[in-house]
Amino acid sequence: MKIGKRKSDKGDRYIYYYDLGRDKGQRPQTGDYTWVKPKTPAERQHNKVTLELLKVKESNYVVDQQAIGTGYVPPHRLKANFLDFYAEYAKDNATPGNRHLSNSLTQLQLFLDGKNQLAPIAINEDFCKRFRAYLKKKFTGDTPSNYFSRFKQVLKAAAKAGYFKDSPAEEVAAQSTTSKRLKNFLEAEDYVQLLQAPITNYEVQEAFIFCIYTGLRFVDIGRVLWTDIANDTLTTRIIQKKTGFPLVLALHPIAKGIIVKRLKTIMDGPEEFRQKKLASTIFALPSANGCNKILKTWMERAGLQKSITWSCARLSFSILLQDARVDNATVALLLGHTTTHYVNKTYKRHRPKDQMENIGKLPSPEVSPYFLLIDQTGMPATN
């Protein structure tokens, strides 16, 4: 193999290519050029540097061909900055609706505290353990495990690519973090109390009500378009951002009422206003933090002494359906999950609503046992 050149259409530059043969596609360009007649010192310097670079590329190509089938990875194939390899891997292996891989890269960059360079030699088992500890301290639930598992996936791919002999995280297991406190949720009576409370921010509060009757996440409710609502059945057709699977929901009368009300407001407006609104999302929400602040005020005005955030809507939706004896497979389907794993583990009631009601179901005789009776002396009665 050698590197050939040809003149550009204008004739002022040489365009270089890999000469791999005479068949179609066997002369790919190298991406380099030199000036045919350099006129300035800058152009002459450009030609000098480019010609030296072309020699390196030609040499590297020869080494690549010789390494085929040997298991040897030429050093020029490895990126000096491991973050570049990570970013390229995350881009090439992205799964629609699943953000764990890209988010694991984001968390690794935050773990590095602003450093933009990470040499492969700096990644050892201790580094992996410290990154795992960072994730466990920052997140709860399965999130630390999900992110670290993707980190391990990238290291395994890097080991196969020649960056490591073995993955540095091979013996470091991904771990979840148990939440120290259970997340609050809304009971059935809380739903009613909330619906009867004064509304001060219709955009946020109607969106939250829509979520507690559909189980949508905050990231999903902000993406619902008018075209996702079927005019004849008022059924949402949404691709869940987290799962990537289509979710079809028959709307509860309350959720349906919100859609009808908002649609009427739009249709009563002028033509330009209607076109603009119908082409946008149904709800225009501020940031998640801003929405949660509005929810806090709303809960206080409704007299609910609970710390409710937007994620509580989805949990409440699942728990109340299970309270109504809806089977877990159906609840999982309505949540957009492909299995009941998260319904059984996360989206469930972790404590009974009424302990006394459940305790009272234990067997008890109509008359108290003799050893519980007290005689006139104040002593327990004897049989």
UniProtKB/TrEMBL annotation:
It comes from the Bacteria. PROSITE patterns: TYR_RECOMBINASE. Residues 181-361 form the Tyr recombinase domain. Gene3D superfamilies: 1.10.150.130, Intergrase catalytic core (1.10.443.10). Signal peptide: none annotated. One of its GO terms (biological process) is DNA integration. One of its GO terms (molecular function) is DNA binding. Keywords: DNA recombination, DNA-binding. This is Tyr recombinase domain-containing protein.
